[in-house]
Amino acid sequence: MRYSCLLLAYATACFGAAPMGWNSWNSFANIVDSQIVQQQAQALASNGMKEAGYQYVVIDEGWWLGERDAAGNIVVNAKQWPALQPGQKDGDMANIAAYIHSLGLKAGIYTDAGKDGCSMYPDSGPRYSNTGSEGHYDQDFQQFSEWGFDYVKVDWCGGAKEKLSGAVQYAQIAHAIQKAEKKTGRKLYFSICEWGSQNPWFWAPGVGEIEGDIWRTGGDIIPPVVESLHDAEHAKRVITAENVLDSFDAGLHPEAQHTGYFNDLDMMVMGMRGMTDALDRTHMGLWAISSAPLMVGSDLTRLSAASLSLLTNKEALAIHNDPFGLQPIIIDEPAPGVQIWAKPMAVAGRRAVAILNRTDAPAQVKVNWKKLGFKGLPGAFHDVWNKRDLVSADATVLVPAHDLALLAVDGEDQAPAEYTASQTSISGIQASPGPSFARLHYANTTGHVIVSRMKSTSGLSTAIVLPPTIGSEVGTVGLILPRGTADLSFDGQPRAIRKLDVYTW
Ligand code: GLA
């Protein structure tokens, strides 16, 4: 994984950022096949999304019905996954992976950590058992990598049914992934999907020492809406504001999220049935300011120009791809349901600000900029959706019902409190009344990424990734420390940690 980022560039240059792409589940559920995946991959490659940084094409449940040969190898339906080129065999998943690669995109696949998968639920059709990878971790993940896949989502239906430990199973899977990567030389990105059931924010960042991963924080944003099925069950599925807001709310674990490790708020539903332009803006704004994975679950061949322009908005994506990759903190609620969320960015003095209107009525909002931790008032306010600067700090912002305004704001940071590291720890951190934004300075001249586990006596336990630094250069990662953090300790390469700057907001 490359972590180099162009700090000031609007766009997509940061490779430690959360993954972006398409996933088959929300719009196609278990009817996914080669033709659908080819059409979606073509759309992604030609509608501006690829240029904007969306790169993964992920095949979710339904690609395999649990059949294995005598040697335990996965056997797939030859009609569903035919040869696409002379010389290819029917029923070989390498065909579709090669097709996706031929468009300059990356390919993703799906399995379950347990013995059974989720099977056909919630859609019509028979249930299939044995669609999980338990008992075959090394074999399956090596197979995915040999087929050419670059990304794997690992669900938890079987794990939940068997009452397994997520921390244990997903660590074993991380090891299987690492072995597969060594054999094939291909990165296999790890997407954990246990819906927040065992508090993954405490163990999933860096599970099994994996360099970068994501973990789902809640249930499914919606049951899939498969327009082509035209059945009564699918016809009544309509997305509401609650679907979007509940996934955002369930996903807030800012102390667990740093460069390379991300809470997953679920696949996106931009432009799907029930989504209005206002809800699309809310959805894109919340996922972008959260640096959440942007895996679009919509039918890309039917996306409206408005949805597409939000998904490819360069300034929103620059907020998403900010090298610190932090989540926002709520800093004010000037009226019930009208909330100001702010996210510290890697550039000194820069914040992304979302003004979220959860209510049914429009709101005229005057932001209290003093709550953003600046010295004085900020100097520049940029309105991301309308691509223009606001005139002054006194300006009010009109946010329609269920809509969201997204701003990039620049000012001067207040001086931080500084704490020097002593070997493996930093102590005496002044408790703050709310979560605190901090910059952790380090040096890592090993030439490779260091994964360090960061803990505090008040219960924090998360992984941070320290990308390599050159010579006497000091690297910086951003952290959101939970309320009252008084000390931090670091496992791994302790001498790397230099200093912590804690900012008061
Ligand atoms: C679970 C996951 C979904 C999807 C389905 C497939 O519900 O959370 O994202 O993968 O399984 O059945």
Give the key terms.
binds alpha-D-galactopyranose, 8-stranded parallel beta sheet, 24 strands, single chain, 24% strand, alpha/beta, 505 residues
Describe the structure.
By secondary structure, the chain is of the alpha/beta class. The strands form five sheets. An eight-stranded parallel β-sheet has the order 7-6-5-4-3-2-1-8. A hairpin with a 5-residue loop joins strand 20 and strand 21. Helix 10 packs parallel to helix 11. The longest helix is centred in the middle third of the chain and has 19 residues. The N terminus is likely disordered. The structure holds alpha-D-galactopyranose. The site of alpha-D-galactopyranose has 8 residues, from loops.
How would you summarize what this structure contains?
This protein has 505 residues and is α/β, with parallel strands linked by helices. It contains twelve helices and 24 strands. The chain binds alpha-D-galactopyranose (GLA).
Assign an overall shape. Answer: globular
- Whole-number radius of gyration? 22 Å
Can you tell me the residue ranges where pLDDT is under 50 for at least 5 consecutive residues? 1-15
Largest sheet: 8 strands, parallel
Give the tally of β-strands.
24
- Report how far apart the termini are: 33 Å
Q: What is the typical, i.e. mean, pLDDT?
A: 93
Helix content: 10-25%
The tally of helices reads 12
* Strand order in space, largest sheet: 7-6-5-4-3-2-1-8
